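Quick illustration, no need to memorize.
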Amino acid sequence: MSEQGNGSGRKARFADLVKGVRPLRSDHSNRTEDTLPKPSALPQETMKDHGRVLEESLDASLEFEDMQPGDSLSFRDDRIRKNAFRKLKKGQYSIGAELDLHGLTIAEAKLALVDFIQASREKNIRCVQIIHGKGHGSSNQGPKLKPMVNRWLQKREEILAFCSARPVDGGTGAVYVLLKSLN
């Protein structure tokens, strides 16, 4: 059999196989609104926080603080009494929720932190623990997440105080955080 004869036989078989097949429409006009997935509705405050995270992540002027793995973090807003802050430092508040940021990028960590704080407040949790790590996996440039968590928490209005945890709870790789109630 010649090559030409063999080729025309294949064409005929292919034509038989695709007989009656019609091209798909590319305009998707046959879809109904009911079949399209609907985006989940996020609270307005969460949407604002996500926008701020994106804005800050695009800010090229953001530099890391010179912070070492063993450095302690500490912040007390004027709204919180010294006695309450001492109690926080001693780990005497019940931890209602915990967030572990290990392995996250800076942008992922910021979103996780914002969502965690919002969810904790909605559940009326007043004291949380955030594990940022000591930065041992951040090469010789020092910790990356730790100084960012320090900065982020100080900028948030709903944070009354935070401090590095006791050694049993992660020491300088974690912070206890007192949250302002929603009411």
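The two ends are 88 Å apart (CA to CA).
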